[in-house]
Amino acid sequence: MARLMSFSLSACLLLLGLLPSLLRANDAPEFSEFLGHWEVDFAASEAPNDKLRYLYDVTLSDHQRRLASGQNRIGETPFQAIDDLRGLVNLGRLGEQITRTAVLNVRMQGNTLYVDRDDNFSLRCEVGGLAEEAENLGYSRCRMSDRALVFWLGLPGGFGIEHRLILSERGDRLSIATTVAADGVSQAFSVSRVYQPFEPVTEGIQCQYTLGKGKVCTLNGGFND
Predict the structure, then answer these.
(1) What pLDDT does residue 161 have?
(2) 101 with 119: CB under 8 angstroms?
(3) What is the DSSP string of 109-133?
């Protein structure tokens, strides 16, 4: 009995000794791990138009199935189904606009983390302070969730936009899953973009991104149409 108790005590002490390392292994990344310059990986990213087409077909089929079988929701009519599909298309167009970012610059200024996005508004998060703040058109909040840094923006009219930044365990990929939802639209629109780290180009070289060619760089910014 004494040997059994001694073994159990030793096992407990061993587990307690391993516990800190196990916790560290499962810890979420620090804010500082997101810092740096990131460029989109087109091959690994979803195309908004393709995603919208898929969600449209799924939503249309769902409406058709329920209306044909008489299992439609209370008050649901074919006209409301059409409005729902139109709402989904509008969400998809908005999602395409706010996910077109090709280059990110994640930086810290004081206690504020900024995600600067080309052709888009910057995301910001107060580190160690208030996670929710008023915006010009609504309010925003941010939080760490597992390995993700989550930004949420609430807009008038029941619109909500979520950006979920997920850092790979090796720190060599940063995916941004963006979801746009609205009251009265049954299906949210979601699209994921994947980014990889890069070093900013030297002075005298400018780069631009096109859907057809991806990243194109020239000396002295001399792009030709």
Answers:
(1) 95
(2) yes
(3) ETTEEEEEETTSPPEEEETTS-SEE
pLDDT at 204: 59
Q: How far apart are the first and last CA of the chain?
A: 85
In this prediction, residue 96 carries a pLDDT of 94
Counting as low any pLDDT under 70, the low residues of the chain are 1-29, 71-76, 128-137, 201-225
| Cα gap 106→115, rounded to integer Å | 4
- Dmax of the chain from CA atoms? 85
The strand pair at 123-126 and 112-117 is best described as: antiparallel
E strand map for 57-213: 103-109, 112-117, 123-126, 132-134, 139-145, 148-155, 159-167, 174-182, 189-197, 205-210
The two tokens of residue 107 are: 């930086």
Sorted by where each begins, the domain ranges of the chain are 37-101+129-219
pTM for this predicted structure: 0.73
Here the contacts of 152-155 (C-beta below 8 Å, separation 24 or greater) are: none
Our CA dihedral for 82, 84, 86, 87, rounded to 10 degrees, sits at: 170
pLDDT tens-digit map of 50-90: 999 999 999 999 888 888 877 666 556 778 889 999 999 99
Report how far residue 96's alpha carbon sits from residue 90's, in angstroms, rounded to the nearest whole number.
10
